[in-house]
Amino acid sequence: MLHNILYSIMSYNNKEQTVGRPEPEFKIDIFTVFWLIIGFIVSWLNMWVILDSMEIWSYLTIIFTTIIPTVIIALKNRVWGYGYLIGFSIAGIPFSFLKPPYGDLFIGWYTFATSLFIFVILWLIFWKAWRSLSSIKQV
User: Fold this and answer.
1) Cβ–Cβ < 8 Å for 110, 137
2) What is the secondary structure of 15-39 as a DSSP string?
3) Which of 80, 111, 122, 131 is most buried by its number of CB atoms within 10 A?
């Protein structure tokens, strides 16, 4: 019995090697759609803050409301993080076609372009770099 307890403790401390393991393909599930909708709502609220204040700091909130939540969500599941970021980006398109005080052309396309640019950067860092690392054979 003591042997089984020690074995379970030792096996719990052994971390699984992630480098060198093949990367699973993208699988869109209901939670990806959920995070896409949440990203859309957060983006819409963020664009309203920008429209109401029209100050430089408000434009910088796009960076904080995209990168930080995306990384936190992606720690659980990377595809969910991408869903959040794509939802955030897509929200800029309909917002750009609304007339003030309900929307603004510049703010909508700025949100779309900025979050799409951040999506590409995060995708290159976490998808391409991770694939490169996983192809390295460790001895």
Assistant:
1) no
2) PPP-TTSPPPPP---HHHHHHHHHH
3) 111
